């Protein structure tokens, strides 16, 4: 691992100032970035540790919206009584991320900024039509995820919170890789004021909405509505865990299970 500078700011303003320097990267829980650095896949000139920045952690539920601070850990989301009551599917998703170490160190903001193609949180954010708050602006979920490890975040822009609308119904199911617990395929479904949404992770280079399934569930919110749905495997991932065709076949199955659990 190469040498790098280390900064430990205590305010959002100081963190943004440090992160705006060329070659600097924010580090939250470090579960993705530090591993990438060890493998030589990332070589920042400076790390800006967000662990001591005030105001980035916590969960509030008000006015039909769940707000989660960017530095809130997966374990905190999974254990939150407020989230379990407002959006049980979100707490369930958080409980399925990695192992205990990952859940106690990893954060929602770090996961979204990294945008791993098999991560769980992107499915929840897109599947619930959430908004990502940064130090500069608010970004809708549909505009945030751009591609493989790519988001709408600008250089030096920092996620501060994520806001989830409370749905009428929601569910999440994934077929996980047994070693990493990343999603070979994961499907988040929801029904609420914003309509029906179905978001899929693990199947392509980036999380995406399955519009064919959305149309079927809009007509009838029932697990049986997902049966017989077909998705093209053309641009789906093929790797040692499964082919594109396999992933395409899994999506409606998992969507049906998520609806049944909602």
TrEMBL record:
Q: Which UniProt keywords apply?
A: FAD, Flavoprotein, Oxidoreductase
Q: Which SMART domains match?
A: CO_deh_flav_C
Q: Which Gene3D superfamilies is this protein grouped with?
A: 3.30.465.10, CO dehydrogenase flavoprotein, C-terminal domain, Uridine Diphospho-n-acetylenolpyruvylglucosamine Reductase, domain 2
Query: Which PROSITE patterns does its entry note?
Result: FAD_PCMH (PS51387)
Note the InterPro entries from the entry: CO_DH_flav_C, CO_DH_flav_C_dom_sf, Diverse_Substr_Oxidored, FAD-bd_PCMH, FAD-bd_PCMH-like_sf, FAD-bd_PCMH_sub1, FAD-bd_PCMH_sub2, Mopterin_DH_FAD-bd
Cited SUPFAM superfamilies: CO dehydrogenase flavoprotein C-terminal domain-like, FAD-binding/transporter-associated domain-like
TM spans (from-to): none
Q: Which residues form the FAD-binding PCMH-type domain?
A: 1-169
> What PANTHER family does UniProt report for this protein, alphabetically?
XANTHINE DEHYDROGENASE SUBUNIT C-RELATED (PTHR42659:SF2)
What is the protein's given name?
Xanthine dehydrogenase family protein subunit M
Give the organism's phylogenetic lineage: Bacteria, Pseudomonadati, Pseudomonadota, Betaproteobacteria, Burkholderiales
